[in-house]
Amino acid sequence: MSADNDRYATQDAPAADWRHRYVRANGIRFHLVEAGSGPLVVLLHGFPQSWYCWRHQIPALARHFRVVAVDMRGYGGTDRPSAVADYRIAALTSDVRALIHALGERKAHIVGHDWGGIVAWAFAIRFPDMVDRLGLLNYPHPVLFAKALRSDPRQLLRSWYMFFFQLPRLPELTMRRRDGIPLIDAMFRDMAVRAGTFTEADLAEYRRNILAPGSATAMVNYYRAAFRDFPALHRIDSVAAPTLVVWAENDIALGNGLARDLPGRFSGPFRIDYVPGSSHWVQEEHPALVSRLLSEHLRG
């Protein structure tokens, strides 16, 4: 077992066969964790996480698939371009396309959570021939989310941080305050419905992630770039790939109403599974359930 793998090994997610590697794609160097063999599954994380949020799903999915959990641009061991424009949706979806090709494949199953979900949605629409099956965890269709921000005061209040992130410098200072402890504790330990979901080692991993030089700015730049992309979201078409949506019912950032109109946004097979007793971090609070749902869906 490598030093990296030993650091990430847990009782529920043995890491002996995980391979940490770097791949150059779309002009930058990506860090990723790979395991298993078979059809390619690309796992895309959200804010403010890294590949590590998939630590429970990697060994479960690796029984049937070649699983690649990526540090998205700006995160973890991946390069951090400096411009806000470097984090627009066109660049993020091009990253996925280039990564699939760099891994020697022409298409893949794509699974995304939070920001990874946004990228997965957009990728499935922009490059439909490169997606076998799509898995989405607690992120709504971009059109529905943009509509909710305009018309639903409750969702607007839930999404206050997106507007805060438009400010210069202050969001980064807030994130790094007291070595990131207040932010990470509030986001993970305090938000989680299931007590004990996040260990001290988990919280330390996410704190390391936001404290790395340039990382906080890169993370916030996703949101700054998103405001420039909102007009384009209204032109996003329906999704043709067979899709599973896993929706945690106790997500304080995303109201359950956002899932109500999801079926109308798919031209291909669609299924939604609601998970009660879970916050936004559904794959970490209910790892066995999410791993089973994803495995069943991706195996068809």
Question: What order do the helices and strands come in, and which of them pair?
Answer:
Elements: H1 3-8, E1 19-25, E2 28-35, E3 40-44, H2 57-61, E4 66-70, H3 89-102, E5 108-113, H4 115-126, E6 131-137, H5 142-151, H6 153-158, H7 160-164, H8 170-176, H9 181-189, H10 200-211, H11 215-233, E7 243-248, E8 270-275, H12 282-285, H13 287-299
Parallel strand pairs: 3-4, 3-5, 5-6, 6-7, 7-8
Antiparallel strand pairs: 1-2, 2-4
Low-confidence stretches: 1-6, 8-13
**What distance lies between the first and last C-alpha atoms, to the nearest angstrom?**
33 Å
Question: How much of the residues is beta strand, in percent?
Answer: 15-25%
Radius of gyration: 18 Å
Q: Please work out how many helical segments DSSP would assign.
A: 13
- Helix fraction, binned, reads 40-55%
- Count of beta strands: 8
Overall mean pLDDT stands at 90
Oligomer: single chain
**Widest sheet, order of strands:** 1-2-4-3-5-6-7-8
